[in-house]
What we know:
Radius of gyration: 19 Å
Number of strands: 16
Shape: globular
Structural class: mainly beta
Number of domains: 2
Amino acid sequence: MTAVIPDTTKNALLNSAVSSGFVTSGVGLALFTAFPPTVGGNEVTGGSPAYARKATTFTASAAAGAISPATGLPATFDIPAGTTVKAIGVMDSATAGAGNVRSWSPANASARRAFNVTAAGFAANTIDSPAHGLVAGDSVLLWATIGAALPAGLAEDTQYFVIATGLTTDVFELSATLGGSVIDITGQGDGDVQKFVPEVFAGQGTYIVSALSISLPG
């Protein structure tokens, strides 16, 4: 049995994290080019003007199981040419290349939606998610259910692409490449699917984070 965490408890946990300094002192927002975000590995660098993290602060004001920055938004980042922004991180340091990732989200992300792979589904490599709203070419991430693993053949921290094959209102298939062959799913299971939109910069440009929140699952 898995117990559900009500929003009042989530709010208390998030406010406690802020009060204890987990996401309050020296916090910075950062951008990353791959999953999972890794300090010193895939954070955006370079450019002219140069990329830099953006300072932000949190206060103990969680509501509906989520908490958002009290200051620092919107945050405008300078991005060098040839960069693809895929993730936004909440860091415990406002200095690029330093500190740790406290929380992160894929770029331009939609809300997560539950999915399920049935026995028939993994035989056909199809994923069930009622009214998923996805279209061919969409980029998605998959998230495991708490205490469980994704269906065999699928992985977290991996960019997948929705393909036209098998696509209906309630069913979709995934590929490792845009318009590529279907991923071979070899087991049943469930989780969440989340659409995101990577932002590609052919030339020097800016990326704006206008809204952001940290939430707890369950």
